[in-house]
Write a structure and sequence with these properties.
This protein is of the alpha/beta class. The chain is 37% helix and 16% strand. It contains 15 helices and 15 strands. The strands form three sheets. The protein has a seven-stranded mixed beta sheet, sandwiched between helices. Strands 1-2-3-13 form a four-stranded mixed beta sheet. A hairpin with a 4-residue loop joins strand 2 and strand 3. 50% of the residues are buried.
């Protein structure tokens, strides 16, 4: 792709430019206001970590379609695979006339996901579908109905996925009633400990409270599964203490409860290894993937223990567009790119560079409460006061706006909307990452003054 430059932001108009402003008016007249957009620019084309808008501005992308572009925008290998598959056939429905790509991708995911046990994979179209199918399968296998999820989690926008999600506004507000038999407990968010304890003296109380949940809210013998994100995504890029997962898993095993890991945002090398579970030695009964699995095409997967996945009978699982052949072709190529570019190593190096550049930011900026993350999944939490930790939500919106004006696409997260999250494509250059962090630093400095 012939972009102006592949190394830096290049602005030729104010952000947004005149053509984006004009199209924005048409958008407002024709698209529901509930479909919000973070940045006010319209895209013409993209490559790697660069997006070019319809006014000719080059913007540096630290969002990657909310984690869908770990291998960069329009990776050439995937583009070729997409083209070749589309020339053969675009859709037949796997449930009617199956095709090899679905089977080959299932084989790859079964082989690569954590756990030395036989596995099987169901392909669907979106992360929310993966979540809902995992719950269906867990309930069918265990013959139990209750599900336990966590506060600050995000699992999708369909009704059951929304029920599992642990954040009210804007996702759940006004959309009830929600599905029954879903219970929430606090996550291991040490910076904002729900029990007002301090790690490591807390003895991982937040995880051990799962047993008290069985006493106060729902009996263990009625619980089919516990679902969690290894690192909270929308919840603010929070990783619990490493001991948290073994405690949760041990309690689940004790009571015959399935463990479901939602790796929709953390998967495909975002935290370093292919799956974040590998950081913590977790071998979940089911693992959910989507987002960066297919270079931005709609595809998701539920990979789990063979005996669990085989529980529903023929026709119990599926979907018209589930496991689309073009998306499968892209996903198979993406896995080859993961290997050939050594994306786990790239992710680790991005994390190291992030730490090197930002290590003194909390000292220099009173607006910063905590900088955290694993691998290339990094976040900056903004507060009004470092002692009280009062969320700086308005200031966060101001920082994002200042970044957008400077040509950096970046978004927020967190229950209070006060966390700036970094989801830069893993193929971004060192210069691009340094430039993006320089823009973020300038924006924080502007807002703090």
């Amino acid at each position: 792709m012939n972009l102006l430059t592949e190394t830096s932001i290049h602005l030729v108009t104010a952000i947004p430019g005149p053509r984006s402003c004009e199209l924005g008016k048409q958008r407002q007249a024709n698209v529901p206001r509930g479909v919000a957009s973070v940045t006010p620019v319209f895209v013409r084309r993209a490559s790697g970590a660069i997006i070019e808008d319809i006014d000719g501005n080059q913007l540096l992308d630290f969002t990657g379609g909310i984690g869908c572009q770990n291998t960069g925008h329009v990776p050439p290998q995937a583009l070729q695979a997409i083209t070749e598959q589309a020339e053969q056939f675009i859709h037949t429905c796997f449930m009617v006339t199956p095709y090899e790509g679905y089977v080959r991708l299932a084989e790859e995911l079964n082989r690569r996901t954590p756990g030395k046990f036989p596995k099987k994979t169901l392909l669907v179209s979106t992360g929310a579908e993966a979540v809902e199918n995992a719950i269906k399968i867990a309930r069918h296998f265990t013959r139990r109905q209750a599900i336990i999820a966590f506060e600050d989690s995000f699992h999708g926008r369909t009704q059951l996925a929304l029920t599992l999600t642990g954040k009210s506004k804007p996702y759940k507000a006004g959309f009830g009633p929600f599905a029954p038999e879903v219970y929430h407990m606090p996550f291991g968010y040490c910076y904002r400990c729900p029990h007002n304890l301090t790690y490591p003296d807390c003895d991982i109380e937040c995880a051990r409270r799962l047993e008290s949940t069985f006493v106060r809210h729902i009996e263990a013998e009625s619980v089919a599964a516990v679902i969690f994100e290894p690192v909270l995504g929308e919840g603010g890029f929070v990783a619990p203490p490493p001991e948290w997962f073994p405690v949760i898993a041990a309690i689940c095993r004790k009571h015959g409860i399935l463990v479901i890991a939602d790796e929709i945002q953390t998967g495909f090398c975002r935290t370093g290894p292919l799956f974040a579970c590998e950081h913590f030695g977790i071998e979940p009964d089911m693992i959910l993937t989507a987002k960066s699995i297919a270079a931005g095409l709609p595809l998701a997967a539920v990979t789990g223990r063979a005996e669990v996945m085989d529980s529903p009978g023929p026709g119990g699982l599926g979907g018209t567009f589930a496991g689309n052949p073009v998306a499968c072709a892209a996903a198979l190529e993406i896995l080859r790119v993961v290997d050939s570019l050594d994306l786990p190593k790239r992710s680790r190096r991005i994390g190291e560079l992030f730490e090197t550049i930002t290590h003194d930011w909390p000292r220099r900026f009173s607006l910063i409460g905590q900088i955290r993350g694993i691998g290339a999944m990094r976040a900056v939490e903004l507060v009004k006061d470092q002692r009280t930790k009062e969320p700086a939500s308005e200031e966060t919106r101001a920082v994002l706006a200042a970044c957008h004006r400077r040509g950096l696409i970046i978004i927020s997260a967190g229950a209070f909307g006060n966390v700036i999250r970094v989801l830069v494509p893993l193929v971004a250059t060192k210069a691009q990452i340094a430039e993006g962090l320089r823009v973020l630093e300038e924006a924080i400095a502007e807002v703090q003054t």
